[in-house]
Design brief:
- This protein is of the alpha+beta class.
- 23% of the residues lie in helices and 34% in strands.
- It is built from 8 helices and 20 strands.
- It has helices at 15-18, 25-33, 138-152, 172-178, 219-225, 230-239, 265-271, 311-327; strands at residues 2-13, 36-37, 40-41, 50-51, 58-66, 74-82, 86-91, 102-107, 115-124, 127-131, 164-165, 168-170, 183-192, 245-256, 259-261, 280-283, 288-289, 293-295, 297-305, 308-309.
- Strands 1, 4, 5, 6, 9, 10, 11, 19 and 20 form a 9-stranded antiparallel β-sheet that branches. Strands 15-14-13-16-17 form a 5-stranded antiparallel β-sheet.
- The longest helix has 17 residues, at 311-327.
- The two termini are 44 Å apart.
C-alpha cells in the first residue's frame, strides 16, 4: 500500500437555505441518527442509512459511521454503489483444448456490489472537512444530508435544503485589482454534435446532451431557463455544423437603478462550492479573475490500498485539519447557540 496526496476541503452550512434558527448541522444530524427508519435506529444500522437518491438503483450509504457517541466527532464515508450488474462475459478455460471459449452471463452474487466512489467527511458544528472523489463530491453529500433530514426525518422544512458552502478568497495578487465582485461570468458546458452527424441524418431533437467534464449546466439548459422557446433553440441547433459545438458565457450581475451592486462574499462561497477551476470568472472593477479564486483546503497524505483510501485514516486526517484550522483561527469551531 502506498501513500498518496489528497485534499481536505472546507465546507460550512448555509444556514439561511437550511432554514435553521437554533442548533447546528451536527445537532440536526445527531437527532436524525437517533430516529428510527422502519424498526432500525438510523445511527445503529447501516441498512437504515441507504438512499436511492435518483430512484435509479444507484445507492448511497453513510458507511463507517463514527462519533455517534456525543463525545466523538461525527464522521464517516459516503459510498456510492450499484445494485449489481449482469453483463456478457467469456468463459476463459486455459486448461481446455477446445477451439472456442463459451460466452456466458456474468452476474454479481447479489451481496457484493460494485462501488462507484466514496467521499470522506467529518462534521463539527456547522463546519465540515471533506475528501471527495470524482464520483462522489460535496454536491452529493448535500443531497444525502437533505434526503436524511427531509425525506427520512423531520429536520428540515419542505422548502429548505442543505447547501455546504466553500470558504473562498482571492489570491493576494488579485485582491487589490479586482475589488468588490461586480458580476459573475458563467461558462456553460459545451453541447457537441457527433462528428459523423449531418443536418440530413440528425433527428429533430439532435444529440446535444453530451457534457464535457464538469457539473455545470449545458448551454441549451441555460437557454431554456432564460425562457427561449423550443423553436428558437431548435433553430440555433440547426446552425451548428457537424463536429461543432454550442458554447456560451453568461454574465450575471445585480443592478439598482443604473448602478451595478457588489455580490456578497456569502454568495461567492455558495456559487463556487461545487465548481471546478475555470467554470466561473469574477468580474471586478474593469478586470476579471479566472482560476485564482481559492477555496480553503489543505493537502494530506493518506494510505491507498486495492480498495481505495483507508477510511479510518482519511477521517482522522480530516479531523486533524479541522482542529488545526480552529487553532489557527481560520474557522470558529465553538458551538453555535
Amino acid at each position: 500500500m502506498a501513500k498518496i496526496t489528497r485534499s481536505v476541503q472546507y465546507r460550512y452550512l448555509d444556514r439561511e437555505r437550511a432554514g435553521i434558527e437554533k442548533g447546528t448541522l451536527e445537532d440536526l444530524l445527531r437527532a436524525a441518527l437517533a430516529e428510527k427508519r422502519d424498526s432500525d435506529v438510523i445511527g445503529e444500522k447501516a441498512r437504515a442509512r441507504i438512499a436511492d437518491l435518483e430512484q435509479s438503483g444507484q445507492l448511497t450509504l453513510w458507511n463507517g459511521l463514527q462519533g455517534y457517541d456525543p463525545k466523538g466527532v461525527l464522521s464517516g464515508e459516503l459510498v456510492l454503489y450499484k445494485q449489481g450488474f449482469d453483463v456478457p462475459a467469456i468463459e476463459e478455460r486455459l486448461d481446455n483444448d477446445e477451439n472456442r471459449f463459451q460466452l456466458v452471463r456474468f452476474q454479481t452474487d447479489g451481496k457484493s456490489k460494485p462501488i462507484e466512489g466514496a467521499l470522506y467527511f467529518a462534521v463539527i458544528g456547522d463546519h465540515l472537512g471533506i475528501i471527495q472523489s470524482n464520483a462522489v463530491t460535496g454536491r452529493w453529500l448535500e443531497r444525502y444530508f437533505t434526503w436524511l433530514l427531509k425525506d427520512i426525518t423531520s429536520g428540515l422544512e419542505a422548502e429548505n435544503f442543505i447547501a455546504l458552502n466553500a470558504k473562498t478568497a482571492f489570491a493576494a495578487s488579485d485582491l487589490a485589482k479586482v475589488g468588490p465582485a461586480k458580476g459573475l461570468t458563467v461558462h456553460a458546458n459545451s453541447n457537441p454534435v457527433p462528428e459523423r452527424a449531418t443536418s440530413d441524418t440528425l433527428p429533430p431533437s439532435r444529440d446535444f446532451k453530451t457534457k464535457r467534464k464538469g457539473k455545470g449546466a449545458t448551454v441549451i439548459e441555460v437557454l431554456k431557463l432564460m425562457g427561449l422557446g423550443e423553436d428558437t433553440i431548435e433553430s440555433i441547433r440547426a446552425d451548428v455544423p457537424p463536429g461543432g459545438s454550442l458554447e456560451g458565457d453568461f454574465l450575471v450581475f445585480i443592478k439598482q437603478g443604473k448602478r451595478k451592486r457588489p455580490i456578497s462574499l456569502g454568495t461567492l462561497d455558495h456559487a463556487f462550492r461545487n465548481t471546478t477551476p475555470g467554470e466561473i470568472d469574477i468580474q471586478g472593477k474593469g478586470t476579471a479573475v479566472r482560476d485564482n479564486l481559492q477555496s480553503r483546503s489543505e493537502p494530506v497524505r493518506v494510505t491507498e490500498g486495492p480498495l481505495g483510501l483507508d477510511p479510518n485514516e482519511a477521517i482522522e486526517k480530516i479531523i486533524e485539519v479541522l482542529y488545526r484550522w480552529g487553532e489557527q483561527g481560520v474557522v470558529n469551531l465553538s458551538p453555535r447557540e
